[in-house]
Amino acid sequence: MSPRTYVCRLADLDPERGVPALVGGEQVAVFRLADDRVVAVQQRDPYSGANVLSRGIVGSVGETPALASPMYKQVWDLTTGECLDPAGKEPIALTVYPVERDGDDVWVLTP
Amino acid sequence: MVVVGAGMVAHRFAEGMCRRSQHESWSMTVIGDEPDEPYDRVHLSEFFAGRRIDQLALQGGPWRDPRVRLVTGDAAETIDRSARTVTTRSGLVAEYDTLVLATGSWAWTPRTEGTGLRGVFSYRTAADVVGLRDWVAERTEVLGRPLRGAVVGGGVLGLEAAAALQTLGVAPAVVEFADRLMSVQLDDGGGEALRVLITGMGIDVRTSTAATRLGAAPDGAVGTLELSDDTAMPADVVIFSTGIRPRDRLARESGLAIGERGGVVVGPTCRTSDRAVWAIGECASVNGECSGLVAPGNAMADVVVDQLLGGTETYTAAPEGTKLKGVGVDAASFGDVFGLSPGALEVTFADPVARTYRKLVVSDDASTLLGGVFVGDISLYSSLRPLLGRPLGADPSAFLVPEGGGAAPSADLPDDVVVCSCANVSAGTVRAAVTEHGCTSVGDVKACTKAGTVCGSCVPLLTKIVNTTLERTGVTVSTAMCEHFAMPRAELYALVRAQGLRTFTEIVTEHGRGRGCAICKPVVAGILSQLGVGHVLAGDQASLQDTNDRALANLQKDGTYSVIPRIPGGEITPEKLVVLGEVARDFGLYTRITGAQRIAMFGARIDQLPLIWQRLVDAGFESGQAYGKSLRAVKSCVGQAWCRFGVQDSVGMAVRLEMRYRGLRSPHKFKVGVSGCARECAEARGKDVGVIATERGWNVYVGGNGGFTPRHAELLAEDLDDDALVQVIDRFLAYYIRSADRLQRTAPWVAEYTGGMAELRRVLLEDSLGLAAELDAEIARHVDSYADEWRTTLEDPQKLRRFVSFVNAPGEHDPDLAYTAERGQARPARPGEPSHPNPVFARTLDVRS
Ligand code: SRM
Ligand SMILES: Cc1cc2nc3c(=O)[nH]c(=O)nc-3n(C[C@H](O)[C@H](O)[C@H](O)COP(=O)(O)OP(=O)(O)OC[C@H]3O[C@@H](n4cnc5c(N)ncnc54)[C@H](O)[C@@H]3O)c2cc1C
Ligand code: SF4
Ligand code: FES
Question: What are φ and ψ of residue B390, in 5° steps?
Fold first, then answer.
């Protein structure tokens, strides 16, 4: 398994709109934040089991960049994976993947 | 401290100790014989919906407190009360000053011959549900056909287990010894109503029947269930749900007092016959009774925490209510269900058509509420249960008639009335959370009091109390949309419109803060669209769209989408029907006629959506906006063209209206209906706008709704000609779009409109506010600028870029998708079913028994 997988160029990412990627066989959701930081979390929505998180809405909770699941609207901290709003369920955190920027290229690492 | 048993109540106890005694030093060993961390047994059935056992683990952190040591997978075997030690199977010896027994119950099984066969289960623990799932998978493979199953016991748990079998793809039967389902909680009428509903789900129900013997299949696993009526049913998997018994062996062997019907005897402080030993939860016997619910156990845990910390709280058994859950059918009851109190009166309302049954039991003067039974519609359960033993405040029948929900008691409950029985929170506590602890929303109150966080049935009542209290304390109930915008939708709409703002960043910088969320971003997206700011996927708008709009399709549970093209007025040519058939066949899409006179195709992967839509657009279809907060469908009857009663051309008018309002974004979706005469075959009065033909023209009704709270539309104007009708509808819709709140359908908007229909008529028909010209112009602009969303998407490579499974692996797609066959079509496979990643092939997997 490659420890580092090429995803796309920064220019291919729209701010606050995720893309799905395959990283070492794992499905990952990659986001470019409003301040151009790039973050990545698991693509699988832990509540529905569907691989859809790249299609969630990116916004903020307080100062923290946050992601809402497109399925049942649970909310996570995009930088730590912590579940900020479990929508009435027990909180389940997301796996966060380290992202590397190499000039304009975006790479995701398998932890 | 030593706690024996690591279940739900032990968790509550440990959590309470840690929370209420944060700085004192003590130590606690919790010994549990199940291998997992304590989990939420109440929601165990969610395992079958895909929640892993570790996801069911109870949160709240006592296991991370350094003072607490959790031992799992080891059973306490003996208690030496003189030496004050507990010894476990593995040889661990734990010393205590205080011992808390929280051993719960075990699932009792009658001594029926054959209960030892493979494929026979109880329904109590994580091991049970894991075993059950594995068995169903293994057995389906061995037998090569769908399984049949039986549940012995038709109580709440038995029905939950039967529903779980269905989720696993097993056809279940329920065998019940008593003459009705839920015989402890429901009277005859309620039991019968429930039988009808359960049977309607495809579950075979046998009452007044006992299981007498289990027979083995040739390979030694269970194969049949023999019944007391001398019949036998095939059963590849059997679940016994025949009651629970307190786990009191350890206490019994150590010489503690045991109740006549089992359970460790405790007094109001939850102390046992030994002052150093306490018992809580289902293993404790209070006044000779053991409970089978989690709420009393939690209350006992709270009492012991309080006592150990020097308090004086005591436990009194509160009356229990029961609500069926996890089955998809509603049934609930509380109090004196059978009307056994002296002089009790019963008021019953049964509606065989709506399949509901409701009964209130009241005192002989009809004033005090003694009990209630609800089947099919349990909306009254949460509001009436807190009034048990108190004055009802109105004639009982007023609650029961169909529209009578309005009489239901609301926010003015006395302080000591328990609103949330799961978390044991009273109305007074809820009010205090607002007035003393500064809570300003239902969410705050939930977090602060834990009310509404277990079964959820009290949330409607909780919401009413919170909002009324907020209003009374002078806090205007916050109209803020979310943390990013402090105003309701209509205000933001007006601001954006007046200032000509065009992007989210502009709008949030000017009027809000932060980067938005799943509430305000779709609202802003809607407003921009209503003001005619380009395509929903253009530029920054794309990132604002809610789930469905961002893919121009409706998200399904497995992450695929449905495709619903517009079929104006329900009219479709044979040629177009053929195209739909071909597309659905080629992509393996599950196809059905929707509830709104259109055809939906389900199961399209995100990367397939453009391919599918290219073929549909080429054949002359356009988006049906089934995904948008916008016009859905205009439903119509066949009308004057064919029908011998029709007085106007309803299909023609429906098509005209659908083409006019297609793609028009609004605060919530809206639907229209057109009927060709007063017989109303199009059910137009159930729509946001209903048009009904008269001899002289059209009557138009507004504010109707199906859905969760049905409402008939009210008459707005009569006997209009075609153009006048269109103008009235234009104005109604434009006015609604300006002024409604987010996700407010026209029904509540009309119902809450100050001045009512009379005032609305003045505004729309007599132009009392001088808005008519603007409203007319807004719709005219929409009509002129309409373009099909899918066609324009297909023409733009920038928009199509996002319809991929993986940006860095074109050609690959989600490997977790799996389909199976049902009635000749594909659907998402459930665990253990034969499946194929390609729905086209999955259709051939149909295995029949
Ligand atoms: C597909 C369809 C069921 C079917 O297979 O027949 C359907 C499917 C959904 N309905 Fe519906 N409704 C469908 C007709 C209806 C109808 C009947 C009708 O339109 O005549 C109603 C009652 C009439 C009404 O709206 O007043 C209806 C009342 C609802 C409601 C409750 C709305 C309410 O005001 O209480 C929701 C929830 C919501 O919108 O918030 C809902 C929500 C949904 C959602 C969008 C749930 C979701 O968020 O995923 C479902 C989308 C599934 C999908 O992929 O399309 N659906 N839904 C029907 C699509 C019709 C179409 O051709 O576009
Ligand atoms: C499928 C299902 C659905 C339910 N739905 C509801 C519902 O909707 N509402 C409701 O109120 N209740 C419901 N219940 C009941 C609820 O789960 C129980 O009331 C609650 O779990 C009782 O908590 P407890 O701690 O007393 O017992 P338990 O949660 O059973 O915990 C006792 C624990 O002690 C362990 N133990 C026992 N003896 C020993 C020993 N000697 N050494 C070590 N460990 C030992 C047991 O293995 C168990 O893990 C449901 C139960 C099930 C099975
Ligand atoms: S009623 Fe509507 S929302 Fe509910 S399951 Fe059926 S289609 Fe889905
Ligand atoms: S009554 Fe169950 S959560 Fe309130």
Answer: -125, 170
Q: Is the shortest distance between the CB of B8 and ligand 2 below 6 Å?
A: yes
Domain boundary assignment for chain B: 2-106+246-308, 120-242, 489-545, 629-787
Tokens of B130: 């894991």
CB atoms inside a 10 Å sphere around CB B228: 14
**B308-318 pLDDT, tens digit each:** 999 999 998 87
Q: Hey, whose CA ends up nearest to atom 2 of ligand 1?
A: B594
Which DSSP string corresponds to B771-825?
-HHHHHHHHHHHHHH---HHHHHHT-HHHHTT--S-TT-TT---TT--EEEETTE
Q: Which residue has the higher pLDDT, B350 or B37?
A: B37
Q: A46 is written with which tokens?
A: 């832990």
Average pLDDT (B17-21) is: 91
Write the residue with the smallest CA distance to atom 31 of ligand 1.
B707
Looking at the predicted structure, is the pLDDT value of residue B112 above 60? yes
Is CATH 3.30.413.10 the right assignment for the domain spanning B629-787?
A: yes
Per-residue pLDDT at B456 exceeds 80: no
d(CA B525, CA B517): 12
- Alpha-carbon distance of B581 to B594, in angstroms, equals 15
Is B247 touching ligand 2 by the criterion CB < 6 Å? yes
> Nearest bound ligand to CA B446?
4
Is a pLDDT exceeding 60 seen at residue B405?
no
Which ligand does the CA of B600 lie closest to?
A: 1
CB B3 less than 6 A from any atom of ligand 1: no
Check: CB of residue B689 under 8 Å from CB of residue B721.
no
> Can you give the residue ranges of every domain in chain A?
4-104
Is residue B331 lining ligand 1, measured as CB closer than 6 Å? no
Cα distances (angstroms) measured from residue B117 to each of B146, B157, B213, B224, B599: 20, 22, 11, 11, 48
Same topology, domains B120-242 and B629-787? Answer is: no
Output the CA B561–ligand 3 centroid distance in Å. 15
Q: Which residues contact B752 (CB under 8 A, 6 or more apart)?
A: none
Q: Which residue has the tokens 């380290």?
A: A98
- Give the chain B residue whose CA is nearest to the CA of A25: B815
Please state whether the predicted TM-score (pTM) of the whole model is above 0.90.
Answer: no
Label residue B404 by pLDDT band (50, 70, 90): very low
CATH number of A4-104: 2.102.10.10
The CATH class, in words, for B120-242 is alpha beta
Interface size A-B, in CB pairs within 8 Å, comes to: 111
Output the ligand 4 site: residues, CB below 6 A.
Answer: B 420-423, 451-458
The CATH class given to the B2-106+246-308 domain equals: alpha beta
**Who among B515, B520, B814 is closest to A51 (CB)?**
B814
CA–CA separation, B576 vs B565, rounded Å?
Answer: 11
Residue among A27, A34, A70 whose CB faces B547 most closely? A70
If one counts every other C-beta atom within 10 angstroms of the C-beta of residue B575, the result is 9
Compute the distance from residue B707 Cα to the ligand 3 centre, in Å. 9
